Amino acid sequence: MATFKDLEDSLKSFITEEQSDAHNIRNTTFTKYNNIKIWMDRGRFQEPHFIVRISISEGVYSLNGCTKLSGGLGYEERLVIKWFSRIGVKDKLRELWGSDDDNKDKKK
Predict the structure, then answer these.
(1) pLDDT recorded at residue 105
(2) DSSP string, 39-63
(3) How many CB atoms sit inside 10 A of residue 20's CB?
(4) % of the chain residues with pLDDT over 90
(5) What mean pLDDT is predicted for residues 81-92?
(6) d(CA 38, CA 96)
(7) Burial per residue of 36-51, b for 16 or more beta-carbon CB atoms within 10 angstroms, e otherwise
(8) What's the whole-model pTM score?
């Protein structure tokens, strides 16, 4: 089963690879991607979603097509959407959303 850490590492690698081809690579600060966080918060949004924090920016995206529900990531937002469309990413996020349901049922 996938973990949030696995997805964070996957997103970090993806963004780093995408940025390494950029014409402005000298101005890119890769260390800001060391603290990428991905999580889900059912208290804030009932719709299946995932939250991404990169540095001080935070965006909430639907698991149905990666539409933005709240916030924004600036330039990196397009990279998150592109990463989401990769094979397996959406399935792993859905699996984590479903496992959270299972965990809540077990607590009752």
Answers:
(1) 41
(2) E--TTT--SSEEEEEETTEEEEEET
(3) 10
(4) 60
(5) 94
(6) 11
(7) bebebeeeeeeebbbb
(8) 0.83
Positive or negative, the CA dihedral 46, 47, 51, 56 is: negative
Task: Provide the token pair at 44.
Answer: 């804030």
User: Residue 19 CB: number of other CB atoms within 10 A?
Assistant: 17
In whole angstroms, what is the distance from residue 102 CA to residue 78 CA? 32
Query: Where does residue 65 fall: left (phi above 0), alpha (psi -120 to 50 degrees), or beta otherwise?
Result: left
Degrees to nearest 5, angle at CA 79 with 74 and 3 = 110
CA within 13 Å, CB half, 17: 9
Distant-in-sequence, close-in-space partners of 62: CB < 8 Å, separation ≥ 6: 47, 48, 49, 68, 69
